[in-house]
Design a protein that fits this description.
two-stranded antiparallel ribbon; binds iron/sulfur cluster; 368 residues; Rossmann fold; 19% strand; Alpha-Beta Plaits; alpha/beta; single chain
């Protein structure tokens, strides 16, 4: 039986604005049954890299927070540290960046809590029945929350074709080591020309995999457990993740991490995708390039697979914008994601998520 995906276009007027429609979308999904009084409710979003401006605006998050409070829930906003050394590489930097991007308590009405602790290592190993993993490390505050509202900016992504609810769950809720497991099969490498031999990384490695020899750090791949801690502590950015995992396998791993992120909360989760400012790359970049299609609307569902499938179909059904990163598929029905990243088979994430039981690709669009 197809899953209902509720859809609001961008139209608004004096009788109802887009915030009201956002509230209606959440309640169409049964928010009141999924969030009950006293529920500590994680609102998982992407705080946006410094310089980016295509993430979901804080004023919409405020409305999500108000609706959760209206159900008696206790919402908190949450995100995880990044694997790469950008402006969100640990909790202090990430929360500072979030406030700079507008996610201050005075705006959003809820506290900000990193789901994976100070340095991205606070995780719970969640058992799953995947094809690739039997357990996955998920940020502890996601795992421990009573309920989950996942708010995602639906856009293109250079590695997964598009990024929506599945990516927000699978990559966005994973701890640092979980992100490493998805992106890389080998130990990080040291850029010798940048390393000054300070030894900070050596002290950070609890697995004893790092040595400083002749003034340069070296990593023993046999001892490295792939936690990613050293990547974040090197102030010289000398330790690099080897992003060697193939795109299809990243997507399959991501789908299995999504399974772990929602484990135990399948009946306590609601998903909201904003198909607005559909940029050609993810919000982890310190810029946002011109949208490849015009703003389409907002979708909500209780199934992240159906939701992402519906959003992908809506984007592909739209006419593409000229003078953007889109290179083909301009006509309605043309593949916009391949029009930006021709070599990425974006359907892999949907296929595998459905296969391992995250949800169903079969949906019906219900316009509100
Ligand atoms: S922390 Fe960075 S600069 Fe210092 S020894 Fe390690 S790799 Fe080299
Ligand atoms: S990734 Fe973790 S285990 Fe591997 S060298 Fe770095 S700190 Fe050590």
């Amino acid at each position: 039986m197809p899953v209902n995906v509720y859809f609001s276009d961008m139209r608004a007027g004096t009788s109802e604005n887009l915030f009201d429609k956002t509230g209606r979308l959440l309640h169409s999904c049964g928010l009141k049954e999924r969030v009950v009084p006293g529920d500590l409710t994680a609102v998982k979003l992407h705080f946006g890299e410094r310089g980016n401006h295509s993430f979901v605006r804080p004023v919409f998050i405020r409305r999500v927070v108000e609706e959760i409070k209206g159900c008696g829930g206790k919402p908190f906003l949450t995100d995880s540290s990044t694997l790469y050394p950008g402006s969100r590489k640990e909790a202090v930097s990430a929360l500072t960046c979030a406030v700079e991007n507008g996610f201050a308590f005075a705006v959003v009405g809820a506290p900000l809590i990193m789901c994976d602790g100070l340095r991205g290592h606070t995780a719970v190993e969640v058992p799953i029945e995947g094809e690739l993993f039997r357990s996955v490390p998920i940020g502890a505050e996601i795992a421990e929350a009573d309920a989950l509202v996942v708010v995602s900016h639906f856009k293109c992504h250079e590695l997964t074709g598009f990024g929506g609810a599945l990516k927000n769950l699978g990559m966005g809720c994973a701890s640092r080591s979980g992100k490493m497991q998805q992106h890389s099969t080998v130990a990080p490498e040291v850029a010798e020309e940048v390393c000054n031999g300070c030894g900070v990384c050596l002290a950070s490695c609890v697995h004893g995999a790092i040595a400083v020899l002749e003034g340069k750090a070296t990593i023993d791949p046999e001892l490295c457990a792939g936690c990613g801690r050293c990547v974040s502590v090197c102030l010289n950015k000398a330790i690099k993740v080897q992003w060697n995992e193939s795109a299809p396998l990243v997507m399959r791993k991501m789908a299995e991490f999504a399974l772990g992120a929602v484990r135990g909360k399948e009946a306590k989760a609601v998903y909201l995708n904003f198909i607005t400012q559909v940029s050609p790359a993810c919000d982890c970049y310190g810029h946002a390039d011109a949208p490849i299609v015009n703003d389409i609307g907002i979708c909500a569902a209780t199934d992240p697979v159906a939701l992402d499938q519906a959003c992908a179909d809506l984007v592909n059904a739209a006419p593409g914008n000229r003078d953007t990163a889109l290179k083909s598929g301009f006509e309605p029905g043309g593949d916009k994601f391949r029009g930006v990243s021709p070599d990425i088979d974006w359907e892999v994430q949907l296929e595998h998520a459905e296969k391992v039981g995250v949800g169903s690709r079969s949906y019906q669009l219900v316009r509100i």
